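Hi R.,

Here are the chain sequences for the assembly we discussed:
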Amino acid sequence: MQVKPHLYPFCAVVGQERAQKALLLHAVNPGLKGVLLAGPPGTAKSTLIHGVTELLPELNVINIPLNVDEERLWGDWDMAAAVRSGKRTFVPGLLAAADGHIVTVDNAHIMPERLMKAVLTAGDNVAGEPAHGHVRKSSERRSGLDSAAFRLFAAMSPDDRRPLPAMFDRCGLYVRLETSTDLAERTEIASRLLAFEQDPESFRLAYESETKELRARIAAARTRLPAVHIDGELLRLAAEISEEAGCLGHRADILLIEAVRTITAWEGLSETTQEHLQEAAGFVLPHRMRAASQPEVSRGKSPGDLPDQEQTKHDSNGDHPSPGSHRDKESQRESQAEGENNATNGEQVDRSQFASPAQLGGDHNGEADSRQSLSSEARAVVEAVGREIAVQPFVFTSPHPMKQAQTGKRNQASVGTVNGRYVRAAMPRGPLRDIAFDATLRMAAPFQRIRKQQSSSYNTNLKLWIEPSDVRVKVRENKTGTALLFVVDASGSMNANKRMKAVKGAVLSLLRDAYRQRDHVGLIAFRDQQAELLLGLTRSVELAERKLRTLPAGGKTPLGIGLEKGLMAIRPLLNRRSGLIPAMIVMTDGKANVSAEAAGDPWQESLQAAQRIAAAGIRTLVIDTEDGVVRSGYARKLAEAMQARYYRLEQLEAGSIERAVRTLI
Amino acid sequence: MEGKADVYPFAAIVGQDLMRKGLLLNLVNRKLGGILIRGEKGTAKSTAVRALADLMPELSVVNLPVHATEDRVVGTLDIEHAIREGEKKFEPGLLAKAHGHILYVDEINLLDDAIVDALLDAAAMGVNTVEREGVSYSHPSRFILIGTMNPEEGELRPQLLDRFALSVEVNGERDVESRMEVIRRRLAFEADPDEFRRRYEPQQLELRERIERARQLLEQIKPSEELLKWTAAVGIRLKVDGHRADIMLMKTAMAMAAFQGRTQIVADDMVEAAMMVMPHRMRKRPFEEGAYDHETIRELLGDLLSEVTHAS
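And here is the predicted structure of the full complex:
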């Protein structure tokens, strides 16, 4: 059974013209790959992606819910048919059914990553990764999917979880929706929605003619589209723009061209203009642009850093070379070869420093410089898009495709936990829990005839015979992966020089990130003679924040005791079943001076605790809070003993502290 | 719902005016959008929700337990049928059961992510689509979502928060007299539920009739352009995300007027509605100091409050 709710008419949406335009362009030209709408809740994202499907009545709409599993996505054996005939019949999955049609995803950002990737790659004519343990099936799945090209309309709320980079890549057009702040507009929005709710049918009727007009315009634009040609110059400009924007591969160029052509056709013209290109870039580039050379290199280089420079390199840059800086050097080389020497000095290129197009255009006149002026045009386009993005900070916070592997680790697929999403079935290992009945039945189905004959001696009216070998269990994916335990030195030495304030600030910024990721957080503070578990692992970052604010400081440094306490708090989580990946973040200057044993050596005790933590395989990060010119380097030694990543507090300003923790997990 | 006989009567609940009103408004307009009740344990939250459904014979409460599995919530393959008949059949989950009724989630902030996602997905279009375990099925799923939570135990995801039309804070009664009355009634109820229910039957009936009347009145209420403008202005002033707040504010004010037996919305309706609709939408960052209490909102709205008097 399928139900279709009354949809709010697409054309009745107020104040989201850019989103409407993007969807309409896609309606005209499926070559645009997909549309991704991002915005806070309540900005008509879902209304729009479902509404536009009514403008394409000739296509089927496949809504992929968050509860989808791999079998439904890729297709599977028909159990009923197998029972009847004893033969395996393949039933195509949603992706195959979507071929040539429309796929909608309402909450793209919270769909299990694995499944979202399946959706994304299927549309790309690339056979997805086969489900585990179904090697034989996979060939069939692939063959059914080779042509699965569909229109993807997706909506997401960027604040909730980090979106999948592949999502950005797959969707040709991207629009960020904002809450309207225009009084008249908002009044109209509320008024229309109330009218729709009170009487959806007559409301829809009132917009019927406008809807028909839109359909006609789409049809007209479609017929016009093949005739819209792009001249060489515009082609080059498109290439330059995507180069300038630092987009990977050629997809951006192609999309840019397609978008420009479609816009032109939509406007009823056959010649493209610069404005069309600018508009196209606004749809195509924002989500593809490199997180423009964020100053990873310059960040955290306070004067005190200099003696430790190699360490800096090793820790914050060595592991994760900034993709931006490399590229920038390249483009810098190119532009120097062209004899252009503006705006590129020093190690980095700051895009915001580029001169305005008018200035550049004015500097270079004449035919010989036509390439130059095109470049400046390209820059102007990218600049304009960039400025728009500046008020959309989330695009920059999205991880670069290269970090994909990292985000993948946040999802754990495991057998035996009953929490989380059932993503696929597997052969049982160990005690039977959480049986995947659907998969079990599918396994049993083909053998029913034989078993029925063999078991004729049984007097039973069951229709199905299931044997232990048929049984499959559910593999569930849990998204709630991380538990961050902060072990904070609250001794007197921390209180000096306002170190505590800096530490609190650093932890706070991590807590903010933890909130977005919905990690578990916990807090241990050690001072004077003891370590105290101020907050057991909880989802309530608010509570953590409150505890942190009121954290008292002063007294001696029982470092070893603090570490030991941290180990105890984390140990129960090391069991994979907990569904949590624990990580310990130790903030201290390492100057231990209190031991647990009466006559113990505080420092040796700390080192031993550190080694035990390392032996337990806990991911750790030490943030050295020591400052001043002469440093003892205890925290560094501690980090070595713990096999922890080591950072100095000064290195970890703003975004980099989050990165440091994220790379830890 | 079987066994309504042992439900504490709604009319016998002492205090908690805001919560009671919020719950009742959801009966006046069943499409209002639910209510989130925030407060410490032992503040009669569950009692009130059960009592609410008891008021309306046709309404039932579908309980979504915190540890419910996704299969149980969205629906799954009917195993029994499959084994008996050798064919697939969809076994509806809680989202199907709750259609047209109350979906009650105690400690909603402790809900598994997968379940919250399922709620959000169903809420997006009012339809629950199931594509799993070899089953392909979709059914309408519109319900009155009532959640309770203790904020001390963690916050709710902003996206889910936004789905609630109303949010109210409840506290234990501070007043000794009221506290005594709470206990007195509770004891009387426990001693003889039937007798207790009989005693409150007239008040229950009255309340029921009032809601019915309000539902009829609501159909005649049309928001004026001025009031719509006012709600939009409030939304802009308080910088809430999205436009759901404006619409919910208007709808709540309309239900409020109807509940008071009027077809005219007055200024007080708007203000009172704002206090239930806006606060939880304003705290989107977890670290902002303090909750937005009525005073803060009153202060923020300032001149708008006097303006609404002219508008209505």
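The CA atoms of residues 81 and 258 of chain A lie 45 Å apart. The mean pLDDT of chain A is 73.

Let me know if anything looks off.

Best,
T.
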